Fold:
Amino acid sequence: MPASSWPFPGEAPVARARRVALAYRSALQQHAPDVAASIDDIMSRWGETWATPRVITYGPDSMLSATEAGDVLCISAAAVHNLRRAGRLAGIKDASGRWHYRASNVTRLSAEPRRRSGGTTVTVSEDRRSAPK
Structure:
């Protein structure tokens, strides 16, 4: 598929790769569910729970764990904590020392254009090629 026909303009290469991985995972689940379950288990142990489909029900004021926020953002819980430390996602520490994130802040962040390392925001021009802002 040529880059200009990707149906999600402005996505960073890692977001594209995750969409592709999820499509392959879905096909594997249909044809070899035992193999898919085994790989899901390995990915979960490695902290990449975004690859395993599950339903997360929340309202705008719900507080999400780092794992749940990562599932919404398609990133690991560790990456969610990195976003907090970088000042891009506000968090609240509970009495047990665990961080939680307001769902409305997580969904707002998920709608923002992805940033490249170095702080450059990637946007899409009319001809659908990426251009730094």
User: Anything to note?
Assistant: Residues 13-31 form the longest helix (19 residues).
